Amino acid sequence: MNIQINLLLATIMLSSSLTSTADDTITTRVVGGSDSVEGDWPWMVNVSAGRSQCGGTLIDARTVMTAAHCIYSNGIEISAARISVNVGAYNLLESSETIDITQTYIHHSYDPTNSASSNDIALLRLITPVSNVSLLETADITTTSEAVSSQSDVIILGWGSTVGYAPDEQVTPIYPDILQEVALPLQTDAECRQNTGSSYDAATMVCAGDQNGGEDSCQGDSGGPLILNNGGSWQQIGIVSWGSGCASAGHPGVYTRTAVYEEWIDNFLNGIAIHNKLTYGTTNIGENEQLNLLISNNTASEVELTFSLSGSNEFTYDRATCAIIAADSICSLPIIYTPTTLTESNATLTVQSDTVNLKTVSTALSGNLGFSSTSGGGGGSLFFAFSLPFLLLRRFVVAKAVT
């Protein structure tokens, strides 16, 4: 508890120092970089999610990839209706066309209550496809592993802080409006683990930064790309996720390792995708609680689905509700939790398709008696609400003006 209180106080001090008195915004940019050349990175995306601003990349004509934490506000998922993107953004002062979002697809194992959570990745489905814009490829697992082992140079892009700071330091931000870029080396997994501690997961993360500091991503860069020149072709190797301070010696930036999510991404682009896991709570024995599981068919044709449930039999659903889903559509499957004992209930729901080559997908169902929770994550505490945007996560939040 004392540790949380100390961190909370430090965070409040830091958030105060990052607030602009001129326009009531908390806004920061890439550290140690320079203005990029307009047109060099056409797949670069600026993401507006509620009051948050993040980066992203166009990986499909209708799909943007970003960080999962960009799609949460104080532990609550931001609705698709409050998210829009600007593809090919460069100068944020110049007006440009924004595109609305119809779906969000957040990795089912992302934990919004953990600032250094693995699986910090999300996909956004655009309401209209983008034409005449090149797409950013994702580096494969082998390329990524070799690049990490050899400490290859990479580039960060974003609209994040140009002012570095140590984890316990207060700073005054500077806000360039031009897309920034900075080159820096990857660190080996051993170095990352030594420099970031037990929060670093080599299976799902990479980190980058010179040991002496000076160049880094920062708040405002979240969701943007870490890219690698692989034989003359730019490929995305990471997503800006979290860090301790910015550009501070011995504190590298940490990025989602995109290669390990190839199958997960493909399910969303071309197959059947489950959008959320379900966590129930505060349900008395014999009473019912209903949550809805979102299942999308992202193929070009109608599909017929079959369902199977393993684990606790305290979860029930009507198999006919989403037995057939039209092309490019989402079905909401109600699942009812009826506890019969004072024990935790867990189950796995598996969804299969009659269409050849479509992968089987599954999700977790859990009921925790006596604990209040929500679908797809959980509520944030006061400590979470204050600490994440400033202390570790690398997005910025536009504050409401006080009237």
Automatic annotation (TrEMBL):
Cellular localisation: Cytoplasm
SMART domains hit by this protein: Tryp_SPc (SM00020)
Peptidase S1 domain sequence ranges: 30-270
Keywords of this entry: Cytoplasm, Disulfide bond, Hydrolase, Protease, Serine protease, Signal
Signal peptide residues on this chain, from the entry's feature table: 1-22
Xref: InterPro entries: ASH, Ig-like_fold, Peptidase_S1_PA, Peptidase_S1_PA_chymotrypsin, Peptidase_S1A, Trypsin_dom, TRYPSIN_HIS, TRYPSIN_SER
A Pfam entry, by short name: ASH
Protein's recorded name: Peptidase S1 domain-containing protein
Organism: Psychromonas marina
